[in-house]
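Q: What does the assembly look like in three dimensions?
Context provided by user:
Components: two
Sequences:
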Amino acid sequence: MNSEVCIDPMIPLPARIQRVVWETDDTFTLLVEPKSENGKRFQFSPGQFNMLYAFGIGESAISISSDPLKQNAIAHTIHRLGFVTSELSRLRRGNFIGLRGPFGNGWPVDRVKGMDICIVAGGIGIAPLRPVLYSIFHNRKEYGRIFLLYGARTPLDLLYRVELEQWSKLSDINVLVTVDHSDSSWKGHIGVVTNLFSYITLNTLHTIAMVCGPEIMMKFTIRELQQRGIPLEQIYLSLERNMKCGIGLCGHCQFGPKFVCKDGPVFAYTQVSHFFEKREI
Amino acid sequence: MTSRQPTLKLKSQQLNTLINVIKQRGYTPVGPVVREGSLIYDRLNSADELPRGWTDEQDAATFRLKRRSDNAYFGYNVGQHSWKQFLFLPKVKLFTSIKKGKTFEVIPNSPHEIVQNYAFIGVRPCDLQAIKVQDLVFNNGQFTDPLYKTIRKKNFIAVVNCTQAGGTCFCVSMSSGPRAYRGFDLAMTEVLSGDDHFFTVEVGSKSGAEVMSEIPHDIADQTQIETADKLVERAARQMGRSMDVKDIKEILYANLENKSWDDVANRCLTCANCVMVCPTCFCSTVEDITDVTGEHAERWRRWDSCFTMDFAKVFGGNFRPSSKGRYRQWMTHKLATWIDQFGTSGCVGCGRCITWCPVRIDITEEMRTIRSGAR
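A: Here is the predicted structure of the complete assembly.
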């Protein structure tokens, strides 16, 4: 492969699948080894995404969900929904996918040192937030209190269950999990993720909120945070849109004046608040 | 150019020499030609192929070619084509991918195999502005489109200033015409007065000066320059339409829920004609194909439109399912969010979207409606 290949951001590079982890019935994590070109290792910031190419089928924009310090196994947690993600779900260890990235802006992990961090995730929205938690744990002393509020549809839809278990045992993070509905075998919280705010007390001026999930969930989370006195400029969210290029040229991901792929996917809420509650922007 | 070049005068008989010189310098000349009753841009072999003696009659949902009473070479405005088709190719292969056991090889399509050295002959000032707008989209920022960049680098632009306005033109409102001031190699103004038929020519680049040095020409005198200027001023006064751009971004941002969007959505067919004819619309999609063996795959990029049903669709939902949402996206992007994205309006006032809309939707009228009912 010539050097032009890695310069053109529209050209995917083959990446070997190291491991496939099925998180739930329909959601799996692909751990891939990106090729290091010219000795340049694949590096990313929490919140960035890759375009994953299923040979001959197409591409899907997938958040990176692994530890930024682990550069040899880049994790992508994928909900099997469309043609591309279905094809990706059929791949096994040793198969190859195409990879372009990383693209977009990440969470302001470095800029919010010293603050309390409140992470609010809905469904697969926890995937782009997991690298934030890893980063915080690498420098745990540099942050204040850490909250993880996570909601899924049912207990069977919870992602990263092993880690959730481990994190809940730690004293320096407050993990609260809820599900929309469940049978009596579930002993945890039931209800929407915003209900979990009643179990915590936020230090309003010293808390940064990072939110990712369905837009309706983010909308109500922002309202809840606002009611609890968190200034809007301390709220960050990650948006999802249709993306074909990942580099701000195809036009598909426009959200008002923003290109979600290159201006986001992570935005300070104040950057998008004017459009956020309008339908079909 | 550091020093201001004098305005030159080119006799109309020398127009063909201009095309020949451009060809000799390795360019492929492209310009307006009449095909199947319409005006399009295509390869030009000689000045005889220009739509000499033709003019266009344009109105909302109306385009008709008519004979002129004179022999003007450029006595019409713009057809459904724009120069974008030569710079931002409607369909282009991005790469070929070949299966190799468990992995595959990706072979990028080299831009150098596709690129032509185009010389655009007869670029209207609004369309020159459209090219500058697309330069900001594709060739200015963190990521650029290598193909666009390569084609533009080898591009020669001969503008023809407008001496008459089309029925749907509003370039004066958008400050993009009827005269071009910069960003061209040559800018010509066609003058027919009595038996005299000539072009005044402004040289805008080194390539432009080199081309002119190979063609017999004069220095234009003051009367000739003034005659040309008056014709361009006449075109400015003839504008069939206008758009008030004062605070346009703020007004549109404040009126995303204006009820007039429902009204235009009831008329709009979401056919995407406006996008296809717009010289600045830049959205694209990609298509992946494989051969029957499944071993050989390709990815193609092609023009797309925010009016298509699946434009904002993700698996699990569609962010813009209604025609109201999609028309509003197109118009607010063109006139408002574009300004935040690229520091310029996405509209150049060429009027194509009005002429080619099958149901006579007129962006100038829609904007007026929003403005008059603005909250």
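Follow-up: The mean pLDDT of chain B is 94.
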